[in-house]
């Protein structure tokens, strides 16, 4: 097990990944789905508050950073009208379902339910970006998802006493980041290696 302070390194890596995506968005290199990134900011920040109320402490820093990066990307996407992905009916449906999950969390007032529903909300918000990563990987940036996965892995390596409250969100972030990273890296990383 790693010392709990390694969570700070993971949070820094997450910040670098989010900053990289925001910078790529600013330059017009990536086109974030605004529905996804808005809800990717909202759901982790709610999970962060639930973790704090559940006494998670320093490990909740990763969850906070998972929400901060998308919030910055969402705001930067308004700089350029071409710097976002066109929102479809499917995106809106995923967004509405995601918001409903957050509403049910609020009504439940239970920490474990809050984290579970935040994960569900985050996943539903992410479905459009997952699909986009597989269909149009050139519109994404793999750095963000690489650093997100590393950050989640570091956080998990600091866990001494496993519980749903402590581990669920980092496990989810590790999995979703890998799922999104793979198709983007297959397209962009292989091109980078060839050039």
Task: Write a concise keyword list for the protein shown above.
mainly alpha; single chain; 195 residues
Task: Show the helix and strand layout.
Elements: H1 6-26, H2 34-53, H3 60-76, H4 89-108, H5 111-135, H6 142-157, H7 164-194
Helix pairs in contact: 1-3, 1-6, 2-3, 2-4, 2-5, 3-7, 4-5, 5-7, 6-7
General description of the model:
The chain has 195 residues and is mainly α. Helices cover 77% and strands 0% of the residues. It has one domain. The protein has 7 helices and no strands.
Summed up, what is this model?
With 195 residues, the chain is mainly alpha-helical.
Count of discrete alpha- or pi-helical segments spanning 4 or more residues:
7
Low-confidence stretches: none
Number of strands: 0
So what's the oligomer here? single chain
Integer-rounded radius of gyration:
16 Å
Q: Look at the helices and sheets and give the structural class.
A: mainly alpha
Largest sheet: none
Order of helices and strands: HHHHHHH
Provide the helix percentage: over 70%
Distance between the termini: 39 Å
Any idea how many domains?
A: 1
Beta-strand fraction estimate:
under 5%
Average of pLDDT: 85
**Shape category:** globular
